[in-house]
Amino acid sequence: MVIDNLITKNPSLVAIIFSSSLLITALTFEYVNNLTPCQMCIWQRWPHVGVIAICLLSLLIKNHYNKFLLLAGLFSLISSAIGLWHSGVELGYFNSPSSCIDTNFNSNITLNDLLAKPISGCDIIFWDFLGLSMANWNTILSLVLGCFCIIFGFYNWERRYEKEKRT
Fold first, then answer.
1. Radius of gyration of the chain (CA)
2. CA nearest 11: which of 57, 63, 49, 66?
3. Rounded to the nearest 5°, which phi and psi values hold at 94?
4. Cα–Cα distance between 52 and 162 in angstroms, integer?
5. Cα separations (Å) of 18 from 21, 89, 146?
6. Domain limits of the chain?
7. pLDDT tens-digit profile of 85-97?
8. For residue 124, what is the DSSP state?
9. Is the per-residue pLDDT at 114 higher than 60?
């Protein structure tokens, strides 16, 4: 009942917790487990930063709460789309973007510099759980969050409209 009230009364707070959890998990894998993220992994993080910022704004500016929640849903769907693209790159369905391949070589780079640099190609799966890579998990979870935000954005509009109609 407490969780049900939290979800229905304050979906922005749920979105903040959800996106923060995804970011904290990614940063934990990067800094604690020493998994170097590729460029597409980094791209998937930025929309979650946007979700957090937009949902914080929705808590401060109440008269546009639903619009902010719908925008947060859009940002989450963008992260899901990037994750889907990344999943396709990992499986060989799509070409890797050129920014995932480091072509910045110059004559001053030594062999030690090249060996010290971590490999982080977008087509390499460094970690998986239940047969799904981190990109797959981000795709699924971001899609769930995006749908959640959009549904509750429209749900709250309908509920507010019904209240205004009764008064």
1. 20
2. 66
3. -120, 155
4. 29
5. 5, 26, 11
6. 2-99+118-166
7. 888 887 777 777 7
8. -
9. no
> For residues 49 and 55, what is the distance between their CA atoms, to the nearest angstrom?
10
CATH homologous superfamily of 2-99+118-166 equals DsbB-like (1.20.1550.10)
Angstrom distances, CA of residue 64 to CA of 55, 81, 132:
11, 26, 37
Q: What is the mean pLDDT of the chain?
A: 78
pLDDT in tens, 52-84: 999 999 888 878 888 889 999 999 999 999 889
pLDDT of 129 above 80: no
* Confidence at residue 61, expressed as pLDDT on a 0 to 100 scale: 84
Q: Assign residue 35 a region (left: φ > 0; alpha: ψ between -120 and 50; beta: otherwise).
A: beta
Query: What tokens were used for 79?
Result: 């992260």
